[in-house]
Amino acid sequence: NNLFLPIDSKNPTTDYRAYQEAIEKGDSKAVKDSKSALRKFVEKESAKISSKYIVKGKSTDIAYMYIPSENCVSLIYGLEKGNELIPERIFSDHKVMIVGPNMLATLLTQLLHNQERINISKKAENIMEQVKSIENAFLQIKNRQRITKSNLNDLKTSLNNQDDNIEDLEETIE
User: Fold this and answer.
1) What is the pLDDT of residue 159?
2) Whole-number pLDDT of residue 12
3) 40-73 b/e (C-beta count within 10 Å ≥ 16 → b)
4) DSSP 3-state assignment of 128?
5) Which residues, other chains included, contact 1 with Cβ-Cβ below 8 Å and sequence gap of 6+?
6) How far apart are CA 96 and CA 10, in angstroms?
């Protein structure tokens, strides 16, 4: 289909480090503030990714925000706004999925395998078309052979009739 697969790498290092430091210090207000900053970062960047990379007819209808830290991704997957998880809201609103290294590797492997299946399927369809073409050519040859045999039988009958006529004429002449 020649569609682009939008993947944009984002690294919310400052907000994630602030969260880690707040956890280490046991500062619940700083933990809450750093989570809020991380949530806002993810929301803002997902909107940018969506508007910049999701283009009907040129890209897939889903984009991926790659975050190179599994721990940060885990934290993001637990973020909420109201009663809704942020990753679900981002996907619903912007069609952007947040992925870490493991999920991205799995996703790309799966896409590669799917593309290989599609290619194999196309090759199989092409082979089936060729087999049908060969089958049609064979049926045409078989039909021509039947017609030729019939014509040969008619010719043989005609020759036999001529032989009989010649014999009859020879007997008449003698």
Assistant:
1) 92
2) 94
3) ebbbebbeebbeebbeeeeebeebbbbbeeeebb
4) helix
5) none
6) 12
What are the contacts of 41-45 at 24+ separation with CB within 8 A?
41/10, 41/12, 41/15, 42/10, 42/12, 42/76, 42/79, 42/86, 42/90, 42/98, 43/86, 43/90, 45/8, 45/10
Q: What is the pLDDT of residues 85-137, one digit of tens each?
A: 999 999 999 999 999 999 999 999 998 998 899 899 999 999 999 999 999 99
DSSP string covering 85-114, please?
Answer: EHHHHHHHHH-EEEE-HHHHHHHHHHHHHH
- Locate 86 and state its tokens: 């942020």
